[in-house]
Design brief:
heterodimer; A: 625 residues; mainly alpha; 6 strands; 3% strand; B: alpha/beta; two-stranded antiparallel ribbon; 8 strands; elongated
Chain lengths: 625, 184
Amino acid sequence: MKKRLTLLVFVLCLAALPARAINEDVKPSDFNLSAFREIPILHDGRVKPMESFARAYLLAFDGKSALPDMSAIAWMTEIVFNPERAYQRKIFNVANPDVVNALSLDWREGHRYSFEELSKSFETYGSTIKTLADMDDAQRTPPQRQLLELYSKVAAYAIISESLSLIQPRFRIHDPALAQELHIPHDQDLLFLDLMPHEEDIFASAEKLRDKNPADLSPEEKERAYLALDYAQIARHEQSAIFRVIPPQWQMDGDAWMSPWASILEGHGSPQSAAYVDLWKKMSAAYLHNDHDAWQTYSAAARDKAYELAGAHASEWRQKLEVFYLHVDLFDIVLGIYIVSFILLLTSFLGTPRIFYKTAAVLMVIGAFLHMSSITMRIIIMNRPPVATLYETTIFVSFIAVCLSLLFEWKKRDATGMTVGSIIGTVLLFISTRYAADGDTMEMLVAVLNTNFWLATHVVAVTMGYGCALVAGTLGHIYLIKKRLRPKDTAAHTNIINTMLAVALIATFFATLGTILGGIWADQSWGRFWGWDPKENGAMFIVLWLLWQLHGKVAGVLSPLNFASGMVLTNVVVALSWFGVNLLNVGLHSYGFTNNIAANLGLFCSAEILFLIGMRVALVRRAKA
Amino acid sequence: MNGKLIALLFVAFLLSGAILYNQNQVPQSIAPETEATDANKKFAPFPDITFKTVDGQPVRIQDLKEKTVLVHFWAAWCGPCHAEFPDLLRYVERAKGNIALLSISLDGNYDDSQHVLNEVERKHNVSVHGPHLYWVSDRDRSLSLQNFNTVKVPETIVVNQGLMIDKIVGGGPWAEAAKPEAQY
């Protein structure tokens, strides 16, 4: 029957598709979203607050965590409660003109496109997408890959927008005779859920019109046909499974959270979840009617009900802490503090009053404290050690480097330590912002990494080794610069070399400890201590490099200048081990592969080598002069 | 000397911290299952609803606390419901009063349901009448949809001492249980 109906509705579609009513008066930002943002949702294997879910998707679509005129959470309310309005919002960032061209769209400033524009183009080029999807990834060109990525984003957007379609007032029957025939009240807002028991009657009613010419249909008959059409269209949303807001209710559910569609259609509903879904219905109605008081009441009730239903599956205070963490965005503040400190330190080198140095010191301490607070919040929210993804390693390594630098600054008080700390803190936190732009930074880990003991020991030790090695490397830079600018300040040179030696020793200790602990973990997980995996080789490379440098220095084979030069190259060694091995995409540690990292890594290594060559040449010339 | 002592203390602190942390933590790969079991031990109470049987008799699940109650949703148009009825009725019969069946029909016309029950009784030699069987009609499906979010049939909620301890979607294992009274 549905097949025949499809034909009918298709003809009707062509005849005249009525524009869906869009409530333009609803301004998402005007609503109080404090409760809504705390509602828990299962996404990417993790229970997170709605705020985090909204930001992850806005970052994926637009590349930013907020729109110029509204926050991510406000944007999310529009998608799920007022999707027709959201479809017109230009939020898809299509940065490649070739992709825009392939979709026959006009290139525009800001290159933002709406769901409405993109979905129409994808409908036209459906066969192209299918061909691309069937192709091997290696055969796809970069624009083709981007086109496919865009397609999956648009599809995800559509799925999210359909999440609540079964409990939204999408229907209203004006014809009393039709309402009576279907045993449905007329001139009242009706939900898909209200019509479900009458599905057979709705299709049977439209089926009677099958042999009629659509153009000859009376207004009453058209209403029957459109009712069936709208019903059939919304029924297709049953696959909508991204918006998993309903906590597990039964033993059979295990840890699986359900979308409203799945909960009801797959038989996971319970009296408690029915009461929760009812609150979502009321929230939806309040939103569409622009009723701010009702919205506030029902969104708060829905949040409370969600945590009551979730029980041990979601910790309310952790979710609230995550909302706070996202709201304050401390890493951006810390980055700003490190930059200001660096500028103040630079000016202090020019002989400015001591207050510049003191201000920089206070700022660095505040920055390190906020940095630590952010990392601590992440540990509490995720209930695991802070170092498991590339993003996390960048923020943790920068913290270690800043702390170590401050420790040396406290001992020496010559601005060298703080300069090193502010440089590393700034650079690594800046790099971390690029990773943060990929979406949720608190992603779940692959099974092999998901063990708190080894994350707390091996990974922390290795990353502490990275942090200390980077401090030693940056001190090498400062030594070379000072040697060039102040060749006669031998006390300062010796001071730096001694600090560098101590830091290199600490780095060696942690790198060695981490590598050995990694071997023991590998033995437990994979049944062998050492497998010549690129990451293992990289870790060992750092240890060997540092040992070689230290032996050379202690044995007197390496002069201070050569030792400092070797330390400069330590940065290259660490970068290759840290990021470089992921490029190989082989071995058991390829969890952090990033496509566009090669160019940046190449640039960094080249810059370091050029710096070293340049400085050595400059020093030789100066010596000759 | 002081430096070495500090370094040693730091390493000892780091290692003991890691060991303590590990002892206090359940690995995350196991934690969700453990948490799920704990969570599900806190069973939710069945809502206080007074059902009205097709004979006009009021029934409250809270009044049947001494029994296990199977709140069963079905419809005449549903094949698996027909298939499970004989076993389900025998299961309740075997429990000798320890289990009651509250069967909610989703049919728009209860005559269709009654027809199916008559057929079950005739073909399978099992009674659809008894003190532990309650037949309820939800002809406009408002009860099943609004209160239970139930669309699919057959579905059975197992209620023990007023708490919902399990839900069975599709046909239940009624035929396999030799001693139903011992099952719940």
